[in-house]
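call fold target=Tripartite tricarboxylate transporter TctB family protein
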Amino acid sequence: MFKDKKPVPIAFVILSGLYFIYVIASGSSRMIGDEVGGDPGGMVLPLVFSVFMFVASVYLLITDKRTEKDREAMSKPEKRLFVLTLAFSIAYILCIRRAGFIPCTVLLLFCLCFANQQGNIDKKDWKFLISGCAASLVNVLLLYTIGRLITRNLLSAGRKGIVPLWIGSPAFTASCTLIITVLWIIAAVKLCGKKWPSNGDKSAHNAWISVVIATASTEIIYLVFKQLFLVELVKGLIFW
């Protein structure tokens, strides 16, 4: 039945199903009230992700079939990449409640981007993997902190009448943070592109590309769900 199916979609159907059960069992996806009047709860976003993962995995399972070439045994690097992808995903599921949405998401995205760009993680790549994780974490926390300061100050000033209400609105503060994020992306691409060009060290180039993708994606997801739709994302280790 599954001879013509690729192993990755099968694995992710199982993984997303288990993730969905875990989120439901946690009991944190129910609506809870807050001062705004409708905080969807800290696990609503993971619940949406789990459903999306399951639907996407089932679609790929049905449509993405093996070719004759694909039916040959996976090479050692492919097996290693497959195991790493599963390991990163499972670690994300297990750690997000304690570590928080932002740290876990940025680390997961970096690891997946870097591993898939490399195609194979050798011993020499671990230094790029570790340094890239650290760089992603530092940069996303920097953007998050700047965004929090802007949001708190402008919202407070808007409530006190110091600035016009539209300046103290969530949409405006989110726009300010988005502009800062875009400027950071431009600066990172220019600086890193000069230092680690595509025709240079492949691992270094893939590492900084993955850092930019992971950092920007995490910050934008946070902006959309937290600041615009007021979804209570799990803070975890981030106490500010």
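return ok
DSSP finds seven helices and no strands in the chain. Residues 28-39 have pLDDT under 50 and may be disordered.
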